[in-house]
Each structure stands twice: as structure tokens, then as C-alpha cells.
Amino acid sequence: MTPRERFIAALERRPLPGRVPHFELVFFLTMEAFGKVHPSHRAYYQWDQMSDKEKRLHRRDQAELYVATAERFEHDAIFVHPNPGTPDEQMRLLDEIRELSGDRYFLMMHGDPTFAIPDGAGMEEMSLRMAEEPEKVEDQAARSLESAVRHAERLRRHGALDGFALCSDYCFNTGSFLPLPWFDRFVLPYLKQAIAAYREMGFYTIKHTDGNIMPILDRLVDANPHALHSLDPQGGVDIAEVVRRVGDRVCLIGNVDCGKLQTGTDVECIESARYACVEGKKAPGYVFSTSNCVYTGMALERYELILDVWRREGIRD
Q1: What would the CATH number be for the domain defined by 3-313?
Q2: How far apart are the first and last CA of the chain?
Q3: What residues in the chain have per-residue pLDDT under 50?
């Protein structure tokens, strides 16, 4: 099976012998690994002034870096972050990656139209609008959903894309940012509609949110994504408990502790990776991953350390 086929088998919770699949939402350590800045960290201030040849070179360089990362670190899927992110450039970059790798890897992009936790500057305003102007907030949510579905339909017609990672974060380490009645009103209906629309088009969906998802776990699964990511242990999410509660209903992706990868000991990193492998592979569908991404500031050696654990411990009996 190709990496893409293995990843899809996990998303569909089909029997998959051998090692469980692996991917990372983002691998930012491209400077350390390849001597190149990650595509999403590049600033193309003069993009509109570039010649077509210069644009092609930039696009090709991004595509080569995504494929090189997947090959070196045995990722089964690639989360593409087009830069620039215009619709035309998204499709051109997807085509470049497909030209380089064929159908070897599962390709996904961000596609979450739902409200996420706002930054500090917008948190108070968002909360007040939900309390004082709920109908306007619902209208905004509906328009965002409509725009996302239109864009997904264009991507479907173009081809090349396999699915979406829905990356709106809903939770702090203490639980949902929104009170549950507000979550049920302003987020959940639109999440369900987005996933249903994407499924109807033939796309796979991975719902990502950090933090303590346990108070909304059943709601997230009822929205019918193919997978949940990141099962954050720093938010108190125990993958063994998630497997017990919903492992037969959704593929699970995670949950190696990112905090330990940056500030813990080697032993703690190994233990976290082993626990994720041993408990995660009890579910019909499981993909090994960190609990967020391989972010800037993390030691590459730490990431390589947990990959060694995955190679030993991530094999189904």
C-alpha cells in the first residue's frame, strides 16, 4: 500500500496490518532538517512583481520541501500551507506536489469555517456580540460556511486534494472556550454542515482542536469527521479514555506530548510516545502524531527520538 492508501484506510477505520500511519499537522523544523525556511514562514512581499518564471521557482521549491519532509520522516499525509494562499496558487501548488509525488501522499489543506478561540484583542468583542447580537453572529457563521463550501467545490472540480484539516481551536486546557449552549448554537451546527458538505464532495475531514476536548468529545464525534486531532495530553486528554469512549466511531490522531518534546527529558518523551502508540493502536483507526505539530524551537533530535519509538511500538499485533 502507498502512504496515501494507508492513511485513508486509517481514516476509514479499516483493518491495517503493520505499522500505524504517521503524519504531522505541520513540520516547521525545515531550516534544521533541510536548510530552508518553511513555506508558511516566507513573506512574498513582491509576489505580484515576480515574473512567471520566478513564481514557478518559488512554487516548485515549496512543493519539493513538502515532499522531502514526507519522505525523510515517513509521513503518510501532507498538510499543504499554500503561500501565497490565493485560490489559484493553492491549486497550482497542489499540482506541483502531485507532479513530484503522484498519488503517493494524502494531501490536505485547512478548511474550517467555524469560529475559533479569538486572540486577546478580539475575545471581549466576540463574547459581547454573541450575548447581545446572536442573530448577527449566526449570520456571520452561515456566510463563512457558504464561502468555504463554494471554495471546496472549486477544489473538487480541480482535483488533487484529498481532504481538509479543520483547524479552528475550541478549547483551553480547562475545557471549551464557549459555554456549551453557545457552542451548540454558534459552532456545532456549522461544523456539522461543513463536514457533511465535504463528505458529499468526496473529501475526508480531520477535526483539529487543542486543549481539553473531553466536555465536547461526543459533540465533535457526532459532527461526523473522519478523524480527531490532536488529543492534547497537556489539556488532560487521555488517549486510552478517548479510545474507550469513541474509538469505534472515529479515527484518532495524536497524542505525543508536545510540551515534553520541548522541555521534558528524553525518558518522558519516550514514555509519551510509547503510551500513544500502545493505547492508540487499540482503536480501529489510529495515526501516530504529536499533540499539536513539530513547531519552531523544538529540537529535531527529540522528534527523531519519538519516531524511533513509533517504528518499534506502532506495529499492530
Answers
A1: 3.20.20.210
A2: 18
A3: none
